[in-house]
Amino acid sequence: MARFPVIPEITQGLGVESTRKLINFSKFDWDSFETSWNFTELPILKTEKYPIATSFERNYLALRADWQRMTDETKHLEEENNHIFIEAYGLQDELTPEVPLEEITLTCNPYYRYKGNYTVEEREARLLEDTIKEFLSYAVGCMFGRYSLDKPGLILANQGETLKDYLRIISKEPLFTPTDTNVLPILDGDWFADDIVARFKQFLKVTFGEPNYEENLRFIEEALGKDLRRYFLKDFYKDHVQMYKKRPIYWLFSSPKGSFNALIYMHRYTQDTVSVVLNQYLREFKEKLGAHRKRLEAVVADSSTTSREKAQTLKERESVSLVLQELKDYEEHILFPLAAQRININLDDGVKVNYPKFGDALAKIPGLSEKGI
């Protein structure tokens, strides 16, 4: 590097200060995402007071404007640097200083992030949707205690840490309390008061205020193109696995056909975690479904039930019966034997070693066991 032909005027001139600014912009951009080692909090939530008591849309538009200013200034600085180098080395006939917008390598720049033949509207829609997905992911991190609204950065990130450790670390009454069980059920209905959808709605009220809750929820669901429950049930785990490049930090216990799903945080896993999933969630879900089937049978047996209502109820009863059989098989052949093993994991071994230990109890991650993946 010492032999690289650099003209002294460049290292002492405007190019140095411009480069420092560009480095700071890139670092800020990179650290705004939870996969960065230096991530502390989401830009859309950078405040010391909760609730923010404003609309999510208004906050997003302000953030989007900041991103655009940073992108524009980065483009200006890169072109300024190019001009300095071109002039210094006499390359006016070989190069031009202009930098296309899609080559401004900031993730907050949709022209770089979404390469391809997209319209402006399509890029903006994707940026909004991904920003909301990042907000949902951060919310789940707060539900598990990985992050906190009370303290920036990682909170629970060591093996086997508990809610007690979380409370000790933040040393105050939390604005939003993580799950004590380290389990977040994800089901097709409101079967549990502490399921992932209910807890996110609580998180939204804590962060953006209860008076704005309905407006904010509607804005989020419209940007996702689906309701929250459907997103968490169908898309959240796929997005999480993709975000962490097939090394998820949250693991999904899932029955063969996906009728039962429960998320856990691997850093808080203990040898009793599978038993908690089994006893406090799977078996309780089975009991609730069984009670629901009995209610359906009562409707069928009621003489006042119309033929149409009876046909619909019989169809639903059959569907519930199939789910109950699926859960029975999942319990007897997979989850109960696994709970009895009280499997131990070592975080130092990584996801690739630890995840397969749970076999069919966890959702499949294509390619996880492949060499080099």
Distance between the termini: 34 Å
H/I helix tally: 13
Can you tell me the residue ranges where pLDDT is under 50 for at least 5 consecutive residues?
Answer: none
Rg over CA atoms: 26 Å
Mean of residue pLDDT values: 93
Largest sheet: 3 strands, antiparallel
* Gross morphology: elongated
What string gives the helices and strands in order? HHHHHHEHHHHEEHHH
| Class computed from helices, strands and strand pairing | mainly alpha
- Strand order, largest beta sheet: 1-3-2
Brief rundown of the structure:
This protein has about 375 residues and is mainly α.
Characterization of this structure:
- The protein is mostly helical.
- Helix content is 54%, strand content 3%.
- It has a three-stranded antiparallel β-sheet with strand order 1-3-2, with helices on one face.
- β2 and β3 form a beta hairpin.
- α5 crosses α7 and α11 packs antiparallel against α12.
- It is elongated, with a radius of gyration of 26 Å.
- The model has no long low-confidence stretch (mean pLDDT 93).
